[in-house]
Amino acid sequence: MTGSLLDLKNIHVSYGHAEVLHGISLSMEPGSIVTVIGANGAGKTTLLNAAMGVVPSTGTILYDGKPVPRSVEARVAAGMCLVPEKRELFGSMSVEDNIELGGFLRTAAERNETRGELYDRFPRLAERRKQLAGTLSGGERQMLALARALMSRPRLLLLDEPSLGLAPKIVADILRIVAELRTTGVSVLLVEQNARAALEIADFGYLVELGEVKRTGPAGELAVDPALMESYLGVG
Amino acid sequence: MDATIATFLIQDGLTNGAIYALLGLAIVLVFAVTRVIFIPQGEFVAYGALTLAILDTGQVPATPKLLLCFGAVAFLLDLWSWRRSFAMRDLVKNIALNLGLPLAIYGAVLYLAPLQLPSFIRALIAVSIIAPMGLYVYRIAYRPLADASVLVLLITSVGVHLAMLGLGLIFFGPEGLRAAPLHDGSFTLGPLLVTAQSVLIYLMTILIMVGLYFFFEKTLLGKALRATAVNRLGAQLVGVRTQLTGSTAFVLAATIAAISGVLLGPITTIYYDTGFLIGLKGFVAAILGGMGSFPITAIAAIGVGMVESFASFFASNYKEIIVFGLIVPVLIWLSLGANHHEED
Amino acid sequence: MAGNRHILPGALALILLAAFPLLPVPPFWITLANNIGLASLVAIGLVLLTGVGGLTSFGQAAFCGFGAYTTAVLTTAYGFSPWMTLPLSLAVGAAVAIPLGLMTVRLSGHYLPLGTIAWGLAIYYLFGRIELLGRYDGISAIPPLEIGSYRFLSGQSIFYVIWAFVILTALGAQNLLDSRVGRAIRALRGGSQAAEAFGINIERAKLTVFVFAAVVAALSGWLYAHMQRSINPTPFGLDMGITYMLMAVIGGAGYVWGAIFGASVVLILKETLQRVLPGLLDTTANFEMIVFGILLVGILQLSKEGLWPFVLKLLPRSRRSRQLAEPSSQLDKRDMPERGTPLLRIDKVRKQFGGLVAVNDVSFEIKAGEIVGLIGPNGAGKSTTFNLITGIASLSGGGVAYAGQTLSGLSPREIAKHGVARTFQHAKILPDMSVLENVALGAHLRGSAGVFRSILRLERKEEATLLTEAARQIERVGLGQYRDRPAGDLALGQIRILEIARALAADPTLLLLDEPAAGLRHGEKQELSNLLKKLRSEGVSVLLVEHDMGFVMGLVDNLVVLDFGTLIAQGKPQEVRKHPAVIAAYLGGVA
């Protein structure tokens, strides 16, 4: 499997006695957008958390062909970055400070460079620089979460439900930005419930159901797979 | 009581209150960042004051040796934690931090102690012996419990307090010591005799508060500490290591405690167990600030100092009872304002 | 927790204990054993407080002091007989604990221990300053205990008194834990939400266990005064308070007998250190402080459960299933409202977080005997709506009415009293408690036994009825074979079913289920669906929040669909499913 950026092999995760991931394998090429889709409770978020090291898992995780470092912080240092479902912003700190902290592991020069780019890409955040993160709207929070993650200059961005709770217009904006990231060399592992929108921008997709991979395939093929509709809306 | 006594009591209350404010701030800082309730803070105060008192006599205090021991234990614990994965680079860093630093301090103290240096330098030496202890105490006692509940961390703190109290008794003995004033000048301000030492206390308190403000508002590390306090997971996800913020908070708190010790050492006789009582007064202030607010804590601390000062005049027998009894109205006040708190 | 597991070792220990003073042992062994007994009393209280209730106190020594000084003053200055002061000493302990408890139970967990540190110090100084209490010299010439003309003067004789109290207290504590009140206390550790949802008054449960701990500490103090026959403030200071905490930590969280073990370890260790170390190290410094401090930190780092569980492993144990007593009476059952009458009315409920509208004027209705599904994609506001109904979140606008009564503004506990029971999206069970006890928690409001009846086992009839009811609900949902297993052993799907059984034990007219099918396998979903249909046929109404359309489709009578906090469709499942807005909400509009 040379050349893969991220390789998850046979990942199991349990909460207490209950196993929620039953041996998931996934692999992604550098520079690609891979999406993991599936209904609620399928284990998508758990999969991302396991890849980032936020929850303990068994199985093998290779990053850039090598075993991934153990701690979350070391994974950030290695170029992985997770934007979690709940965003986990620093609510009582300013937008500016949130962004600054995203570059905690980068040098001041790198931070200065990236910060400029980010404010260009997210003019809305530049306007609200001094505002507290907790006072932002849902869409702005998601932008800030994304900007904070990009500040760490990731090679692999793990995005958990960026569309969650956002109006369709904003979802479209955010996904457009995600699609553009590919051109800057950032690879994206995108967990989404909004399957159509996710498959629209992804190269490859995994449909996950009850902690197992049910279908895999190029995004275009998966989008028309009847299994998708069935998984989401049920057999009734 | 006449005006002279009143102004004297106010000055006394203000001086002690300033120290309690420093300690209260350190308690809030450590709690916000690590969720640890820093009961052993008082021992750091006592260690600082007693180390200075011994340095005043030109002798070598026992605390550098204790620092060596702490460093060695931290080193062994690190070795043990690496039994599965081991990196040469980490080892070098570890040796430098856990063995090199205490050894360097120990050597420096051995050389400097008999030299009859000016009092400010002696105070600086005392602080630099005690401050790194915060690092090792965090590593040894608290880091392995990073995920534990506030309650477990609190009981741990009491354990650390007990152990450090016992060590203090062994190293300094049961007798109290009093350090020489850092500056023995004084001047009169109207009817009031103001000592240089108390002016120094006010200045240092203000300086530390301003310093902390800049640290938290202007530096990336300071912001990382705030971020950890606001959102632990969020901080992890941007690469802020819990160990880094924890160690920093503890070193800061130990430094503040040691400075409080060297400021307090010359104005009152310090015993090995005095620090605990002083630290608790910082706690009363921190609790009034809801364990979260720096400004309320600082103001409350001045209040505690005042109450104590006036209580020692009007009801000297009941001084401690009144000061610690202050916790009762404080808790009633907090309880009335409390909505339901979900336990962590 | 049932006592019959250790009957043999228990009887053996009792015989050894009774024979101990008769053996030719050095007198200081007897003194040590007496001190262990006195400390065990305090530690039992702390184990309940810390290990079971999740609260803690460093001020227990002060409560000993109140017990000791009460009897000392009354017997020496006012000529009371020692036995007459016993209830008074305990009452003083309780009287001091109640206001302190009332002040702290509403605050987060660390305020009580911090309060007790300051409080413990203040009380210590107070003992030393009050003339009536003899200042730091204390009070001497306290009369010994006597029965008839027999005076308990020797260490051997008072040994029996002390240990009789220890055993009675331990049994009482054990009884308390194994009761309705005890379940409420143990539920404190599982977080307040689940406990509140079944009508448990959390503040009261906290206060109960705090006062219990204070009263047994006062009992210890009372015994101490009559054993020592003179007292001074020293043993009632903070140092001793911390030592008691160490005993409870060694004994382990939640083990009543572990408290005695912890007290023994600490006091024997202290004795050994004081006797052995000075010889070895040529010093009189009290090393036990350092050793105790390190021990406290070390045990918390290595085994938060304390050391007693390791001892328990060495004891023989049987895994017999619990025999339930035959209940003599039936629990009252709520009258089910007539099928089809309106039951729950959600009227334009609204929730705003700052500028964010999470739930936007949503209205719908549930009729008795109906299953209604509240569905929508992630982030649609389903859980928030659910929390508004259950009283966990407060309404920004609108109202909730249940069978004609207003629910809005009520606490979860009060809502539970109306016959509304719920499950949680992230299951909130107590993994160490058996399935039976977890479910019995749901029946909390159907019993009324209090602390005293529980300690004295006078509530066995009621308890049997509650447990039988719990067992019946466990059978009803098909978990019968797991009844006596710890709930933590169950798989996720079974835990969800357990939560339903717990809700059923409350005899609800309305069942609120928060994502009951999330994470379930196909077969499990089928079983859950059948169970819910069965409940409906028995007259229970159900509102379930669900994401999984497939699951709700064949089950519910009515569907309510939310998207962005707004109601987008409502009606029969087959119609709603074809609604274009619903399909777009689920699969996402093409961007």
TrEMBL record, chain A:
Give the UniProt record's GO annotations in the biological process aspect: L-amino acid transport
- What molecular function does GO assign, one term? branched-chain amino acid transmembrane transporter activity
- Write down the Gene3D superfamilies for this protein, in alphabetical order: P-loop containing nucleotide triphosphate hydrolases (3.40.50.300)
State the UniProt keywords alphabetically: Amino-acid transport, ATP-binding, Nucleotide-binding, Transport
PROSITE patterns cross-referenced by the UniProt entry:
ABC_TRANSPORTER_1 (PS00211), ABC_TRANSPORTER_2 (PS50893)
- Which residues does the UniProt record annotate as the domain ABC transporter? 6-235
**Oxidoreductase listed as a keyword:** no
Q: Which SMART domains match?
A: AAA
Is ATP-binding included in the keywords of this UniProt record? yes
Q: Which InterPro entries match?
A: AAA+_ATPase, ABC_transporter-like_ATP-bd, ABC_transporter-like_CS, BCAA_Transport_ATP-bd_LivF, P-loop_NTPase
Q: Give the record's family classification.
A: Belongs to the ABC transporter superfamily.
* Protein name in UniProt: ABC transporter ATP-binding protein
Species of origin reads Oryzicola mucosus
Automatic annotation (TrEMBL), chain B:
Per the record, the major location class is membrane
Q: State where the protein is found.
A: Cell membrane
Question: Could you state one GO biological process linked to this protein?
Answer: amino acid transport
Indicate yes or no for the key word Cell membrane: yes
Keywords, in A-Z order: Amino-acid transport, Cell membrane, Membrane, Transmembrane, Transmembrane helix, Transport
Membrane topology term: Multi-pass membrane protein
CDD domains documented for this protein: TM_PBP1_LivH_like
What parts of the sequence cross the membrane? 18-37, 66-83, 95-113, 119-138, 150-172, 192-216, 249-271, 283-306, 318-336
Instruction: Enumerate the GO terms in the molecular function aspect.
Output: transmembrane transporter activity
Please give the name of this protein.
Branched-chain amino acid ABC transporter permease
Source organism phylogeny: Bacteria, Pseudomonadati, Pseudomonadota, Alphaproteobacteria, Hyphomicrobiales
